[in-house]
What does this fold into?
Amino acid sequence: MSGVPGLPTPTGPYLDGGLLPADFYAFEELLSDREREKIASIRDFLRTQVAPIVDGYWAKAEFPFQLVEGFAKLGLVDWADPDSSESRPSNLLAGFVAMELAHADASLATFFGVHTGLAMGTILSCGSDEQKRRWLPAMSRFEKIGAFGLTEPHGGSDVAGGLQTTARRDGDGWILDGAKRWIGNATFADLIVIWARDVETKHVLGFVVEKDTPGFTATKIENKMALRIVQNADIVLDGCRVPEANRLQNANSFKDTAEILRRTRSGVAWQAVGIMFGAYEIALQYAKEREQFGRPIGGFQLVQDLLVKMLGNATASCGMVTRLAQLQDAGVYQDEQSSLAKAYCTVRMRESVGWGREILAGNGIVLDYNIGRFVADAEAIYSYEGTREIQTLIVGRAVTGGLSAFVK
Ligand code: FAD
It folds into this structure.
């Protein structure tokens, strides 16, 4: 695409060689020096290895497996190995990592979020010490990749009450039967967390199903128009037998599942901030370079209006997730606070990427200019891990002192 006479050079948030000024209120300065060094190393990886290739993989809807080693080298989840001497990072740093990844590419941010937050997060929360020792060391080195199977063909928003996959005790193991939909990483994951209802107690239990277990199949969902790099799968469990040793010993009801989602939803809000930062930077760069009526379009009031609204959305959302992370670090945050951030930031994201695309006009729909990918990916992020409506119902129930508007 580059080199077309009269057109601005396609730019991405990193292709320009560094970070453009989307962090208008310098939130990053709230991190310690060591944490900022970590972010700088991630940014360097994203700028040099990820940004140049993501469009091609997005277009092909393929996963760039060669990047997995680079993710491992960043050492972002080394701390999760039970034998590691490293301590868990602050929620603020974890948020900045999610933001930084999405700032380059939302699909890879999703890959990382599913593997570390959902799959490893479940084993960390619900696994016994033995199970953590068995699975987490290889997962923390990205030698084994995880997936998280909760959503079902018939149960998306209503998965808590509507979960139909069954678990039946069978001697020293369990038989799983049912179907899952949308499960990220599942076409190639080594360890797939599966949530299933115990036919006896009706409680939701968690299991780790290992790849190649008989009765487990994962089929890639084709023809997506968002997050095309993420390999989402339809899973079928047909008499799939797993040993009792693979039942997560501390997952006893859906409350344990909800605890994991509470944490990961705030991560999705951070991803939305990353997308807003990326989209703003691309639009700003373009507005400074593209000339119409004899001047850069960034010199028109109407274009500045869009840029400033995008910056306002990104800045307000970043402030919200930063405070949320501080509450998480203090150990006092609630489900509804995560839900409000997920709902608010993704609404602002959806609005902002549209404005960014508008600034690039025709070039905004060409993949090479990067913004089109953000527009498409924002649609999936808006809906996954609980739609805006569902997050709204969670917040609404909390602020009215328990008046639940969920209808059954
Ligand atoms: P539905 O629940 O069918 O909702 C359809 C519409 O109805 C929505 O607008 C919804 O808000 C609205 N609605 C539903 N109930 C109400 C109500 N009571 N009041 C008002 N409105 C309502 N799941 C996993 O388990 N693991 C994964 O790794 C995973 N990755 C995903 C990746 C992608 C790219 C996508 C798109 C989804 C992924 N999901 C995953 C599933 C995701 O969490 C669900 O898609 C999401 O929760 C919404 O469910 P649904 O798509 O079935 O929509």
